[in-house]
Specification:
Length: about 270
């Protein structure tokens, strides 16, 4: 009634006025929010993006049809290699001559990992698709020193132990990876190397400091599980670890929700 009375008071020929508040502007949109994710799980890697036996694969074993779709979608950044997988993964198993790479039991997904696709293959695939790499780090069974070693392998040009190893593997130019994810859901009880949020914050802070000593330009991302206050407060209490990270990532699984017809089901979501 109030709305009707207000409109009724306005003359039919009254001028319409539109006000613009120039102080209220749209913030810039970071396209990385449209990023994607790859893990050594199911057919995501093998028989997925990487399938040397496929007629659709290129000389590197990459499925060209999938690569074309990624380019068409304009995926800005892709996180690799996980996921739960990364918390038991040794990146050294996935570099060097493929004939020398070990077949190992992946304890995250109870599968055999052939290590035929690893860090350098992922970097080559990113160049093919136009996506930036977001490297995930093992803070489960892995150490802060191993995380810094991978940063050195990827980003230092030459003259050090790990950069020279990359060059021995046939990759002369550094990958220059900008974004790095410090572990995966380490405060989740299902995770290999599970720890509390506070313990994770301490380990992530150590890894961050060592990695920044390798390359001060790195953008490091903390990763945890909701409820966020526990995760965020745990990091904040841990040796000022917030100062070593640029961003935070939290995991939320979204599943389809179906409701049965009202005539045969109670009025609850299942």
């Amino acid at each position: 009634m109030l709305g009707e009375s207000l409109f009724a008071q306005a003359p039919a020929n009254a001028a319409t006025r539109i006000y613009f508040d120039s102080r209220r502007t749209m913030p810039p949109l970071d396209r990385n929010i449209f990023g994607s994710f790859l893990e050594h799980l199911g057919r995501a890697i093998y028989e997925g993006i990487y399938d040397p036996g496929s007629q659709l694969a290129d000389s590197n074993g990459f499925r060209t049809d999938i690569a074309d779709e990624i380019k068409h979608l304009g995926v800005p950044i892709v996180r690799y290699p996980g996921g739960n997988f990364v918390s038991g993964y040794n990146w050294l198993d996935g570099v060097g001559p493929k004939k020398d790479r070990p077949r190992k039991l992946d304890k995250a997904w109870n599968s055999i990992e052939t290590n035929q696709f690893g860090t350098n293959e992922f970097m080559a695939w990113c160049k093919l698709t136009g996506a930036k790499p977001l490297m995930g780090l093992n803070l489960g069974t892995g150490t802060a020193e191993q995380a810094a070693a991978l940063a050195e392998y990827c980003n230092v040009e030459k003259g050090t132990k790990w950069s020279d190893l990359r060059r021995e593997h046939g990759v002369a130019e550094p990958h220059k990876v900008e974004h790095w994810c410090l572990g995966n859901e380490m405060d989740g009880p299902w995770q290999i190397g599970h720890m509390t949020a506070t313990e994770y914050g301490m380990k992530a802070a150590d890894a961050g400091r060592q990695m920044h000593n390798v390359d001060s330009s790195l953008k490091l991302i903390a990763c945890g599980v909701p409820p966020c206050p526990l995760f965020s407060n745990g990091i904040a209490r841990s040796s000022n670890s917030v100062s070593t990270t640029s961003m935070a990532s939290r995991f939320t699984a979204i599943t389809a929700i179906h409701r049965k017809p009202a005539a045969t089901a109670p009025s609850t979501w299942r």
